Amino acid sequence: MSDEPGYPPLPVPLVVPVYDNHTHLDHLDGRVGSWDIEPLDYREQLDRASSVGVRGVVQVGVDLATSRWGADIAAREPRVLAAVAIHPNEAPELEVAGTLDAALAEIDELASRPRVRAIGETGLDFFRTGDEGRAAQFRSFEAHIGIAKKHDLALQIHDRDAHMEVVATLRRLGAPERTVFHCFSGDADFARMCADNGWYLSFAGTVTFKNAQNLRDALAAIPRDRILVETDAPYLAPTPLRGRPNSPYLIPHTLRFMAETLGTDVGVLAAQVSSNTELVYGRWDAEPVSLAMPSDDPTDEPADIA
Description:
By secondary structure, the protein is α/β, with parallel strands linked by helices. It has helices spanning 42-51, 64-76, 91-97, 100-110, 134-151, 163-173, 188-196, 213-221, 251-262, 266-281; strands at residues 18-23, 54-60, 80-84, 116-125, 154-160, 179-181, 200-203, 227-229. It is built from ten helices and eight strands. Strand 1, helix 1 and strand 2 (54-60) form a beta-alpha-beta unit. The longest helix is centred in the middle third of the chain and has 18 residues, at 134-151. It is globular and about 50 Å long. The two termini are 18 Å apart.
């Protein structure tokens, strides 16, 4: 774990560029966590990412505020595509408040925007939510699957301590054509099961952690056309930067580690991962839709949800 403060220095740039397919730019302003850091807005983060070969990001929503923010930013920033959703840990609270249906209806509306390319992060989380919240999580997850299929969008899954329940739900309802297990946390057997179903596995900085041999085994067990890479920034900074805030510009650390694990050239892996990412989300270089300029900050401070 690093005890140095602030954002890490820029890594050596990648020769072949890639994408960060899951990040939270709205969290990268010094407000989240205990880091004593100088606030940096999303434009600075994207500029840093561009300078090291990260050509674009998928900005991921966890509630209505962050989903609206991401959809608005993507509409005017060509380096950003958006994913919109209600996080599984948010769903039980909205159910109790009687507002889950209204929230899902707004996610459905946001999903129609051209630069919203995924529904996520959604899924099941049995680590943070007890038995009393599981029914709401299932109902929300099932609704998000339906929204993704309705709009022909990718699905980004948050799966924590719920592997088989997530798989059973996807099989029962029929998974969207492009389904991604964000921040994959299973073992090699589970990875092969996901790949056999045609699903994608996205690896975060956790694959570099010393105690994460299961993730390295999973990475090695699947076809390379199922592999994606992400930061989940500002969380899960890769070794040797653990404990410091993560950012899309740190993707090169994780990708180089993945290439070393697989015994392949980093440029070859980058080309494969970049192609995989575009197959899931489409291309980033379409002209952004012109909308009224929103605030650069979400209306609500997002929860610390990885």
